[in-house]
Amino acid sequence: MGTKIKSADVQPKKSKVLPAWETYFYNTVHISVVAYILYCVYRASNKYDGLLNVYDFEPGWSFIDREKRLLNPEDYDGKSYYILMFTLALTHLRYTSFCLEHVEHVTGTSSLQQDTDTDKLYMEIETEIKDKQTDEMKFSLMDAFVYIFYFPLFFCGPIITYDEFSKQMNESTQKPLQEKQMISVAFFALRMIFWAFFNEFILHFFYFNALQHNLSVIEDMDLWTLSGIGYCQGQFFMIKYTVMFGIPSVVARTCGIEPPAGPKCIGHIYTYSDMWKYFDRGMYSFIKRYIYLPLGGSGANIIQKLLCSLGCFIFVYIWHGIEYYIFLWTLFNFIGISLETLGYWIDKQTAVCKFKDSMPGIYRRMQGLVVVPLFVMSVFTAFCFFGGSVIGYMYFQKFIVKGWLKSWSIVIVVVYCCMQSSMDIHDRQKMKKKRE
């Protein structure tokens, strides 16, 4: 037993497996590549300025020496209808959560199945807590209205399931906010204001959205600039959702409600599972609680897990819109998740565990190589999601079809270094969380 505890303590410190110089090298490459592709996008924004659609721009801030700024994708004439549809969709999700929790309360069945690897004692404690929370939940018409039309989270989210909302609402009436919590909320609000202005600021210099709308410009670009556009799209999307979820969360937190946290920085996320888990955490909790677990996703059978994941992605496809580019994005995400699930299953096999313990450095490097093609595929799916199937196909043509050995080698080496750097960040975050 003592040996196992020692192994568990050492295991999270995977960054120590590699020599310090090697880790520094990976981090340097990662930072340098990101800086270079951002410069490429800035250079392309100035180079192709005259060729871009004028309707993609609007007058810029007067105190900045830039005549115009890129139009925020959300700033268009039909945005009021979009907000209406988005609000109705969120209302439907909250109503669904309320109804499913009510069904569970009435029938006594639980949609929250336990993982087969969970300790028996933990299962008993979790069940006891779950029963207590269910007893505290109320399901009157007024309770439904309070949850569904809770104003701070009504328009933009994030989604919070009714069981969690009811629990926090009961606790907020018993424990008013302390001074320390109010200070934390104030600093969080300042962070959201900063990121909101930062997002608007970068639109004066990086015209990534307008660049991808011009197919002739995209065809003329090199792979570095194209990669930079994809990176900018992802980062802008992440910061936008950080602010969109964060500002309503400020109001909710002053009322004692702690909504799901905003997106985790996607710059160092290297797995599909983490991207889905940490981007829209509220939606992830909703899908896991009401689709994945009820379908039997906690079972040990890998085929069962994959089928349950398929059910989740069918919902994701319908939720985002039944379009061809959404289908491609959903399909490749499902393939990525399936390959990761298979990889986790292989990783738990006895022979692999022995190899990992005996040669952790080699295992870590092999792990980085395995992740490279998955990450390249995720970039392709991101282009499909942000720019549509045509942009995704053009990226595929440039890298796969028209690419040659030298360009492939450079991309593989660069992505490998970035993956190792991301793994190092991930491991340090795990160590920090464990110390806390």
Automatic annotation (TrEMBL):
<dbReference type="Pfam" id="PF03062">
    <property type="entry name" value="MBOAT"/>
</dbReference>
<dbReference type="GO" id="GO:0005783">
    <property type="term" value="C:endoplasmic reticulum"/>
</dbReference>
<feature type="transmembrane region" description="Helical">
    <location>
        <begin position="408"/>
        <end position="425"/>
    </location>
</feature>
<feature type="transmembrane region" description="Helical">
    <location>
        <begin position="291"/>
        <end position="318"/>
    </location>
</feature>
<dbReference type="GO" id="GO:0016020">
    <property type="term" value="C:membrane"/>
</dbReference>
<dbReference type="InterPro" id="IPR004299">
    <property type="entry name" value="MBOAT_fam"/>
</dbReference>
<dbReference type="GO" id="GO:0016409">
    <property type="term" value="F:palmitoyltransferase activity"/>
</dbReference>
<comment type="similarity">
    <text>Belongs to the membrane-bound acyltransferase family. HHAT subfamily.</text>
</comment>
<keyword id="KW-0472">Membrane</keyword>
<feature type="transmembrane region" description="Helical">
    <location>
        <begin position="324"/>
        <end position="347"/>
    </location>
</feature>
<feature type="transmembrane region" description="Helical">
    <location>
        <begin position="24"/>
        <end position="42"/>
    </location>
</feature>
<dbReference type="InterPro" id="IPR051085">
    <property type="entry name" value="MB_O-acyltransferase"/>
</dbReference>
<feature type="transmembrane region" description="Helical">
    <location>
        <begin position="182"/>
        <end position="208"/>
    </location>
</feature>
<feature type="transmembrane region" description="Helical">
    <location>
        <begin position="368"/>
        <end position="396"/>
    </location>
</feature>
<keyword id="KW-0812">Transmembrane</keyword>
<protein>
    <submittedName>
        <fullName>Uncharacterized protein</fullName>
    </submittedName>
</protein>
<feature type="transmembrane region" description="Helical">
    <location>
        <begin position="144"/>
        <end position="162"/>
    </location>
</feature>
<keyword id="KW-1133">Transmembrane helix</keyword>
